[in-house]
Here is the input.
Amino acid sequence: MNTLNKTLALIALASSSVAFAGTDFDTLDIDGSGAISQNEASVDTELLSKFAELDTDGNGELSKEEYSKA
Here is the structure.
């Protein structure tokens, strides 16, 4: 059972690392518009929780400059 728990923990850690590594600006900008919409940001819960704070111009999207402050 202990080996099973370690294996599951390792799989969970690897999955979260891959997901985190894939959340750069270009990956999140799914439609290639040059900005990240709130809908696009929803795949990254941490980014989504900071979205309003990062969207300094209040246009409902994150520019590369706004995203870089995340």
In short: Strands lie at 36-37, 61-62. Residues 23-70 form a domain with the Recoverin; domain 1 fold (CATH 1.10.238.10). The two ends are 40 Å apart (CA to CA). Helices lie at 2-21, 25-28, 38-41, 45-54, 64-67.
